[in-house]
Amino acid sequence: MAAAVREAEVITQPLPFSVNSREQLLMSIRGSRVVIPDLQSMISHWPHGTHPEVERLDEYVQKMFTCLLSSSNNETRFQKLKASNIALFGATWWPYASYEALEIVTCLSIWLFAWDDETDSLEFSTVIDDWDKASVFRHKTINYVQQILSKNSELELSEISPDPIIGLFKPVGEAVSESYNDRQISTFLDELLFYFNMCGEEQKLQMVHHLPTVEEYVRRRLGSGAVRVCLATIEYAYGITLSQQVMDDEAMQRIWHEANIIISTTNDILSVKKEVAQSQVDSLVPLLSLELGSVQAAINQAVDIVRSSIQRFDTAESEILKRYSTMPKVQEDIHKFIDGCKFACTSNLNWSLVSGRYKLNCQSMKGGLHITL
After folding, report:
1. Radius of gyration (C-alpha) of the chain in whole angstroms
2. Angstrom distance (rounded) from CA 50 to CA 114
3. CA 123/CA 182 separation, integer angstroms
4. What is the pLDDT of residues 340-373, one digit of tens each?
5. In CATH, which superfamily holds the domain spanning 2-372?
């Protein structure tokens, strides 16, 4: 399914003023006062919830952080991860998973956050400006992930990757490969490879002097955000098995794609304050501001992208549920999967508002969210 990803619909216009460097763009938007419209109201008709064992999950998460810290001398890095409230992230993304599955998918989340920081964090990455070293790290990761998801692998995993960050994937890979059939494993692996490849593309774009176009950015963002990796765990989390025919259904592919757009674009909107503070402008809102003339216009355009995507998601849901209306069990499992995508969208938004990751510190967007960049 990764190969079928379409670019988000973005209205483009000629640049209203000349900005040809990241420094100039940063100067043009820093200090801007903007209002982010109420995103919560747009998906108020979608379900949201929290797993009842969130406190138990938090104990598990803290143990994982302790293990990670013991293999790293960067305490600040993992203190920041702790402040993100990963337990709430997992408990709201997969609120009806069995507890055992919840631990695994939350472990995947921690791994994705830690792996991304290893290659992409201005604060913590030692390879962000070194293409060769980053490529070696990605290659080691791909090799490790492929081996652990291969049921027939006879290689000793400890010989493949002594890196503690890469090795954190082990419990995830073992659990998924034990539970999933060949089609499900293939989907999960494809999405992981898509993620790794787009992270590499992201690094390439950030290392060149010129700014990417909105289209270039969106293309790689729909992979480097790892949204599809997480969506590929919904069947595991809820103990369902969908057929290849269902997963290849055009409406199902649209559901994956629209969920990806909703989550990725929401993240781009809500993270703009943090990114500007860190002098990062290779993201949707700053790039749109080049084309539309102001940060507020860019935010409004990004919000429109989310709104339109929600509408397309709802349409695709109606189509596929109607198509399988004569197959009650299949339709029920499709409905569970779609609800899993909806939980991902509502959780991502609500968690982003309260998590320390974006420093927004609010629970409600009613009346709009006023921020200064």
Report:
1. 20
2. 23
3. 39
4. 999 999 999 999 999 888 889 899 999 999 999 9
5. Farnesyl Diphosphate Synthase (1.10.600.10)
